[in-house]
Design a protein that fits this description.
Blueprint: H1 9-20, H2 24-38, E1 43-48, E2 63-69, H3 76-79, E3 86-90, E4 103-109, H4 120-129, E5 131-140, H5 143-155, H6 161-169, H7 174-178, E6 185-194, H8 195-205, H9 211-226, H10 230-239, E7 247-256, H11 258-269
Parallel strand pairs: 1-2, 1-4, 2-3, 4-5
Antiparallel strand pairs: 5-7, 6-7
Helix pairs in contact: 2-10, 5-6, 5-8, 9-10
Length: 270
């Protein structure tokens, strides 16, 4: 009979840090969003649904980050103590606890698919309400993306909680991201991560065989991404399949109308 492996305290600590570290699946969605944020130069940023990691460690001192989530005790909290770069606020995306136009940029990455379909329009309107300049929302969208996650749920021995929530809630269509935002300005829709690349990356990250290799690669690429290194950006684009369609995820970018920003500034001044 095979005896169970006895791990030392040091080995357990290492496994815990690797399990809580950034993953390739996170970085492939983060890289294009960081470009959309960085091109604005700096300011106040709200990171909605940040979890224990979030965007703060990827951004320099020009950005003052507020992270909002229902809880920060997710796997990211395993990797290291909470970042001191972000101000943390407990709250709900459907009712953000901030005045109108509080932040230059508002970001929500892979949050909407964890909400009931009936709550997504309200959440998008809340994101737009508190933004002065730009909103960036990324979420899995469409039938092909959902079908890919159904195949993944069958292929893996134990589907992780996030995957079970995807299947329970379903995915919005790209236009469902755009429609609630259009009343606030100009909206662009960008594709992110080919469906085939998503399946490959996810299967490897959930595989014991690839566990250490994928976490180690993600750690290197995250280091480069925090420094806006070209080699890191290029590697992540390749890992996500060059964003070739059909894509797994849609990134909706709202540039808030100048008239709305101006009226907000005037109201603040008065």
């Amino acid at each position: 009979m095979t005896q169970p492996i006895r791990r030392s305290a040091g080995a357990k600590s290492l496994v815990r840090r690797l399990a809580g570290a950034r993953q390739l699946g996170q970085l492939v969605r983060t890289e294009p969003v960081l470009r959309l944020v960085r091109e604005l130069g700096g300011g106040e940023l709200l990171d909605v649904g940040s979890g224990g990691l979030g965007l703060a460690d990827h951004l320099d001192a020009r950005w003052h980050v507020t992270a909002l989530d229902l809880s920060f005790e997710d796997y990211g909290a395993w990797a290291r103590p909470p970042s001191t770069r972000a101000r943390r606020v407990l709250g709900d995306i459907r009712e953000l606890p901030f005045p109108d136009r509080s932040f230059d940029v508002v970001v929500a990455l892979d949050v909407l698919e964890h909400l009931d379909a009936d709550d997504r329009g309200r959440a998008l309107s809340e994101l737009a309400r508190v933004a002065r300049r730009r909103v960036v929302v990324a979420a899995p969208t469409g039938a092909e993306a959902l079908a890919a996650d159904r195949r993944l749920a069958v292929a893996v021995a134990v589907p992780p909680p996030w995957l079970r929530e995807h299947l329970a809630n379903g995915f919005p269509e790209p236009e469902e991201l755009a429609a609630p935002l259009r009343a606030h300005g100009t909206v662009r829709l960008l594709g992110n991560e080919s469906v085939a690349a998503h399946v490959t990356v996810t299967r490897r990250e959930l595989s014991l065989r690839w566990f250490v290799a994928t976490r180690t690669l993600a750690r290197v690429l995250a280091w480069g991404l925090a420094r806006d290194a070209r080699w890191s950006r290029r590697a992540l684009r390749r890992i996500r399949g060059g964003d070739r369609p059909p894509v797994y995820r849609t990134v909706a970018v709202l540039d808030v109308a100048a008239s709305i920003s101006a009226s907000s500034s005037a109201a603040s001044a008065s």
